[in-house]
């Protein structure tokens, strides 16, 4: 199932128009998406059929939240590549990179060093970048 406002599920003429209008943008939230999934199961007339929600990345966040919010609908959730704790008030932005770097460092220190160099260059102001 696609998140509303993506693919063919654009309820207000066009995505651009919906994103510009504050009254329609209020329907474009993760909570609304979770409610859509719960409603879909209800409308499929399979209320007694067990469901395991599966998703990756943002979809993984949604299935984890779906399981928490609707435990009576989803008997389980498989969330892959999910950054559940990557929010400003919970952890730093570097936390994920630090964990991944520790995992990969013994197996490819050169690549980890290069990825850190790229990250530093990305945050460096253009005026300080050497011309080549």
Automatic annotation (TrEMBL):
It comes from the Eukaryota. The keyword Secreted does not apply. Keywords: Glycoprotein, Hydrolase, Protease, Signal. The keyword Ion transport does not apply. GO terms for molecular function: dipeptidyl-peptidase activity; serine-type exopeptidase activity. InterPro entries: AB_hydrolase_fold, Peptidase_S28. Pfam families: Peptidase_S28 (PF05577). GO terms for biological process: proteolysis. Belongs to the peptidase S28 family. This is Serine protease EDA2. The gene is EDA2.
